[in-house]
Amino acid sequence: MPHTANQPPRPISPTSGRPDRLSVDPEALFVYGSLQFPEVLFALIDRVPDHRLATAEGWRVAALPNEVYPGLVPGETIACGYLLTGLAPEEWRLLDAFENPLYELKRVELTDGAHGWAYACTPEEVEPHDWSAEDFEAQHLPAYIERCTAWRRRYEAREQVS
Length: 162
Known about the structure:
The chain is α+β, with helices and mostly antiparallel strands. It contains 4 helices and 5 strands. Strands 1-3-2 form a 3-stranded antiparallel sheet, with no helix packed on it. Strands 4-5 form a two-stranded antiparallel ribbon. This is Putative gamma-glutamylcyclotransferase.
């Protein structure tokens, strides 16, 4: 998984997830954006689940307007990422709540014949250029980790009230 560099935090927009999309019982999560970074996973679920490199042909990791994280859309390229396995149900719920409402949980066929679930969006919602994990890491990762940590505190406080 990618490693971080020490960069000063930069402001980024807040997340606005919704905890109601898990109508399926997903067994593996294909991550292609910010969830590729161990530090982000630690901020959200306190661990890095079992994972392996994975690719999905016919998908593109596209930049999103006014966001530092990407969207997965159908495309004529190969999306690279990781397949996370062994997520506990409470981790799935937390990650699902964290994800932006523009995403839809979709089953994605991987190039090795396996499959995973991924948070994808429609092509109309993305920029024409691809997202760069390297640029994200260099320019946004420290602030994004802070944002994830703050989001988790709010999420856990809401869960305790419920």
